[in-house]
């Protein structure tokens, strides 16, 4: 047939198909109108579902339109069933289209609808729980995935005896545990699934995941044997069988790639792709995109960078990424942009590599806003820090080659993206929620009740480890996540997706800022002065630096004062070595003010006590401490420092002091001394012991300019939860919640209030951080166990200095210097362990507090006035008497 006739035939077929679709659409609308006229909602819904299933390419659009055009709410059980079916079907088609976030939203709506109407004859496990938990796993929200999977198990045990379905749920649980690097739990979940003796299909699924777990456990030989055996037992006879065989080939490819058997990996990936082409030609978009990325990885492993980029572009095209504006949050996008970046580096295209790293971080940043749990966000931050390090290294090399300072700005941006992002999210959301008039909103009130209930149960879990509150907390947290999503949709300003990628150093104070980035391979020190980045110092061998810091902090501070006391000279040398390592390369000038933005282990270190010159003397007061020439404060990040905070406008002081004299804990006799000494310089509310509790704390928190808390502090429970001991009651970090206003400064004079668990890429999870999250502009907190008497004296000196300088950071410095310069009965207490644990974290600010009334002065004044009046009256009386006598 001549080619021109073939073209005409194709055109006629397209026209016929278009006409058929239009006719079909007209027929659908007529039927829908008829059902609506009869108020027959059930058949109206089923007609929509039939059309969607018959036209899968149009399914998502038509079902979303059904949501908009439904004329009334469902009333009968039949209508509830039909609508639940529609919501779950919408989630299914959005997943096939690659719209993972839309799919999650649809399944969440289905789950909420099910809970509200209890449609128990609907297979909620198979059609909602299962795909929803899988979606959470796909975006990395493993906490919520596990919650749904546990709910599925409970539902199955109550309403179904289908062992195959239960085995499939255990399979999905294993995937979640594997993704959280909890490999032992993953193995157990697989064992529990296999113990149910499921059918061959479900055994294949479980063994697929088993091979994945072995792969993560670096047992590649066994993983390969398991997956090859699994493949031999499978045959693609329908779409479901084909999907799992495709998954097996994908896992096999991953294992072969890790074993550097690129040829076998490529063959496995291509077989998986062939199955998708045959059984899912227009769907399973994300699986197809993943295969293109993995095939690209095999080419990159063979030094074929151009081919790798070609397959990376196929991934982007498959996921419908046409420009920066179309990028959304998806792990597959994060991975493919990194693949292309590595290929760019192979081709000596560092600029392009840097661009793709930034695009990878952009997609990852959009994922984080779908996460509910802070722990999930912190895990993401750890992964993103690895990506950021690669971008920093490229930027550093480009700066070395070109001296173009835009690359210094890029280094700072990347460093900030991997620092305290979860804290920044909390600060922004808390401030936005209290700055807008939403307190009376029904959803907001419900949110507050949920948060209080969760805090109560979490507190119960810590104080009563055998309580059965865990399941309740998981359920409430899941409901809270959905509620937060509803609030964000209703109040758009609560969405914090637009992360400020350009760091506004022009709005910083004019003094020197030193920001650290401690990566896996190198350490970078960013030097900012007078609102400009002066340079970046690179330290090779990050592991060696981390080891030196860890050893120094643990030996001389976390393990108590003995090492310092027993060998002051060794400490002197070690401290000078640390100074030379992390600060000397900056070449700071005398009397400069410094703001330190630490990273990693540096978060446990106070810089004030570092030794700046190698000139040892036995007279500790003469040691060249950094504090003698520099004022130093700290920040979690530049972004958190610049975040808006609504602090109290009052000038009042509130002091909460707990001596623990009537408890089993060590009595803090110095607390009474501390309070008495502070009274000499500040007036305000001073409350003690039984009067200190969460209620009095809440009342004073919103009305105080400065809140001072003196009590025991420590880490509690398996999660090392930062805790304040209020005697009969305890206050945990998770109980701190945003208030309408907050103190400008919270002083935590207790031990270890700036201490906590180090979350890589996020920082130290401490009480100090918690107060910053709920709106406090700055905190003074302790990094290690302090000597109580020393802390009391330094605190009193701090308030005395604050009275004079009005500058809180400088007042703390003067208090420390006063300790060093004042004669002591023992030279040993001049060692940094005793005076250097307190650090100022946050915004440097002017603070003026009311002075106490000096009754001695007033009494002397009144006495003199009385004497004067008496003398005057006596003199007047004598004059009068003399006048009469004349």
TrEMBL record:
Stretch forming the signal peptide: 1-23
Transmembrane residue ranges: 855-875
Pfam families given in the database record: CHAT
Keyword hit for Mitochondrion: no
SMART domains cross-referenced by the UniProt entry: TPR
Gene3D superfamilies associated with the record: Tetratricopeptide repeat domain (1.25.40.10)
Keywords: Membrane, Signal, TPR repeat, Transmembrane, Transmembrane helix
InterPro entries hit by this protein: CHAT_dom, TPR-like_helical_dom_sf, TPR_rpt
Superkingdom: Bacteria
TPR repeat ranges, renumbered to this chain: 167-200
Keyword Signal listed: yes
Location of the CHAT domain: 575-842
PANTHER family from the UniProt entry: RAPSYN-RELATED, TETRATRICOPEPTIDE REPEAT PROTEIN 28
Protein name: CHAT domain-containing protein
């Amino acid at each position: 047939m001549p080619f021109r006739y073939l073209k005409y035939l194709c055109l006629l077929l397209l026209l016929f198909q278009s006409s058929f679709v239009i006719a079909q659409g007209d027929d659908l609308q007529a039927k829908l109108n008829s059902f609506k006229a009869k108020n027959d909602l059930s058949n109206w819904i089923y007609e929509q579902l039939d059309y969607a299933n018959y036209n899968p390419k149009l399914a998502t659009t038509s079902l979303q339109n059904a949501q908009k055009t439904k004329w009334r709410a469902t009333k009968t059980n039949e209508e509830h069933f039909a609508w639940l079916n529609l919501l779950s079907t919408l989630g299914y088609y959005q997943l096939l289209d690659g719209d993972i976030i839309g799919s999650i939203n649809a399944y969440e709506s289905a789950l909420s609808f099910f809970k509200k109407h209890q449609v128990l004859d609907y297979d909620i496990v198979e059609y909602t729980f299962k795909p929803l938990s899988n979606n959470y796993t796909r975006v990395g929200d493993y906490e919520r995935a596990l919650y749904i999977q546990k709910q599925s198990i409970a539902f199955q045990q109550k309403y179904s005896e289908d062992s195959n379905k239960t085995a499939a749920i255990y399979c999905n649980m294993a995937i979640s545990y594997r993704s959280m690097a909890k490999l032992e739990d993953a193995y157990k979940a697989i064992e529990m699934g296999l113990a149910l003796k499921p059918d061959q299909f479900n055994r294949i699924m479980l063994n697929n995941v088993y091979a994945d777990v072995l792969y993560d456990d670096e047992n590649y030989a066994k993983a390969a044997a398991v997956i090859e055996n699994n493949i031999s037992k499978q045959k693609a006879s329908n779409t479901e069988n084909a999907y799992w065989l495709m998954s097996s080939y994908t896992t096999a490819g991953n294992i072969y790639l890790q074993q550097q058997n690129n040829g076998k990996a490529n063959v496995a990936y291509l077989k998986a792709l062939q199955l998708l082409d045959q059984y899912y030609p227009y769907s399973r978009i994300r699986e197809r995109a993943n295969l293109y990325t993995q095939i690209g990885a095999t080419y990159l492993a063979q030094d074929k960078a151009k081919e790798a980029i070609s397959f990376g572009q196929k991934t982007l095209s498959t996921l419908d990424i046409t420009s920066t504006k179309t990028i959304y949050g998806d792990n597959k996008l994060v991975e493919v942009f990194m693949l292309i970046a590595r290929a760019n580096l192979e081709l000596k295209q560092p600029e392009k590599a840097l661009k793709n790293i930034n695009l990878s971080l952009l997609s990852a940043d959009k994922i984080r806003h779908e996460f509910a749990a802070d722990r999930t966000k912190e895990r993401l931050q750890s992964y993103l820090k690895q990506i950021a390090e690669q971008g920093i290294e490229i930027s550093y090399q480009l700066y070395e080659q070109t001296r173009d300072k835009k690359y210094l700005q890029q280094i700072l941006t990347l460093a900030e993206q991997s620092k305290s992002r979860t804290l920044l999210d909390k600060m922004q959301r808390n401030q936005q929620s209290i700055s807008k008039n939403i307190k009376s909103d029904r959803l907001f009130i419900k949110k507050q009740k949920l948060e209080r209930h969760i805090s109560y149960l979490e507190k119960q879990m810590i104080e009563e480890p055998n309580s059965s509150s865990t399941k309740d907390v998981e359920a409430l947290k899941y409901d809270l996540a959905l509620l937060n999503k509803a609030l964000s949709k209703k109040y758009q300003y609560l969405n914090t997706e637009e992360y400020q990628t350009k760091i506004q150093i022009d709005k910083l104070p004019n003094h020197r800022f030193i920001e650290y980035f401690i990566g896996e391979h190198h350490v970078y020190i960013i030097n900012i002065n007078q609102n400009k980045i002066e340079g970046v110092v690179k330290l090779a061998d990050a592991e060696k630096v981390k080891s030196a810091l860890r050893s120094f902090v643990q030996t001389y501070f976390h393990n108590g004062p003995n090492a310092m006391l027993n060998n002051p000279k060794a400490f002197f040398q070690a401290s000078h070595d640390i100074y030379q390592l992390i600060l000397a390369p900056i070449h700071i000038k005398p009397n400069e003010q410094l703001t330190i933005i630490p990273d990693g282990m540096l978060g446990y270190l106070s810089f004030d006590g570092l030794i700046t010159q190698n000139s040892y003397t036995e007279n500790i007061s003469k040691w060249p401490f950094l504090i003698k020439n520099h004022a130093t404060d700290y920040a979690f990040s530049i972004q958190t420092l610049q975040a808006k905070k609504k602090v109290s406008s009052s000038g009042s002081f509130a002091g909460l002091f707990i001596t623990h004299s009537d408890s089993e804990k060590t009595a803090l006799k110095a607390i009474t001394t501390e309070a008495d000494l502070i009274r000499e310089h500040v007036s305000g509310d001073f409350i003690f012991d039984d009067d200190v509790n969460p209620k009095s704390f809440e009342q004073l928190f919103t009305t105080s300019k400065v809140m001072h808390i003196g009590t025991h502090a420590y880490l509690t429970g398996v999660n090392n939860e930062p805790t304040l001991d209020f005697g009969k009651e305890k206050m945990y970090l998770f109980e701190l919640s945003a208030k309408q206003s907050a103190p400008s400064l919270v002083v935590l004079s207790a031990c270890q209030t700036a201490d906590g668990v180090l979350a890589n890429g996020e920082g130290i999870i401490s009480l100090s951080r918690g107060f910053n999250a709920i709106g406090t502009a700055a905190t003074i907190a302790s990094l290690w166990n302090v000597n109580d008497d020393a802390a009391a004296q330094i605190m009193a000196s701090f308030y005395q200095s604050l009275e004079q300088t009005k500058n809180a950071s400088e007042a703390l410095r003067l208090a420390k210097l006063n300790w060093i310069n004042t004669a002591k009965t023992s030279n040993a207490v001049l060692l940094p362990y005793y005076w250097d644990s307190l650090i100022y974290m946050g915004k440097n600010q002017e603070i003026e507090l009311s002075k106490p009334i000096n009754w001695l002065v007033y009494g002397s004044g009144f006495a003199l006035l009385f004497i004067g009046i008496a003398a005057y009256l006596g003199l007047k009386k004598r004059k009068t008497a003399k006048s009469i006598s004349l």
